[in-house]
Amino acid sequence: MTESRTVAPGQEGTDLMIRRGYRAATLILFPLLGFSMSGCSGKDSYTTPAQVCDVKVGKEATAALLPDGEELKEIKAPDALFEVGCVLIVDDERAFSVGEHLSDESTHPARQLELSQGGSSVGIRRIPDLPSYEKGAVKRREARIRVTCTHGKKKYLLIGVKLRVSLREEPIQELGDLSEFAKKYAPLAAEKRGCR
User: In Å, how far are 7, 41, 108, 159 from 53, measured between CA atoms?
Assistant: First the structure.
């Protein structure tokens, strides 16, 4: 159904001109607004590292786990679980951490994550497409991979990756980013540590 309106004599084209002027202003204003807002993102303010904890995992894998910000630094931070550990800090806030631990403990990473959340397996998924000598699991904000060592004094190298906060609204995307980082990191760390 079309709307009929009465137009005063001599004003026939004014309504059309106003609508066209509004459209033209919109076409000019929106790209400018997008351009000015693109400068608000801090992602380009620091250089995304290709190396984390002395492991060359690649910028793409690292960038997926980092928030926007102005300044990035890495701190070596071993803890009670991991004898090698690093924390990436963006604007004085912990972004994510990576840890490595050589062990004879054979507990599957999925079971380790279950134990870390009181024995519940809710939200825990196995990391797909790992080589036969690796086992892995991921949950919201955390991933673990266990690499079977063929060299060295210990049987396994445990890799842990943990986000401080969720970066993705979609949990599936976050699980994928964590899994991909851990999958790239694990074999390189195992080689560096003399495990494989």
Answer: 73, 26, 24, 12
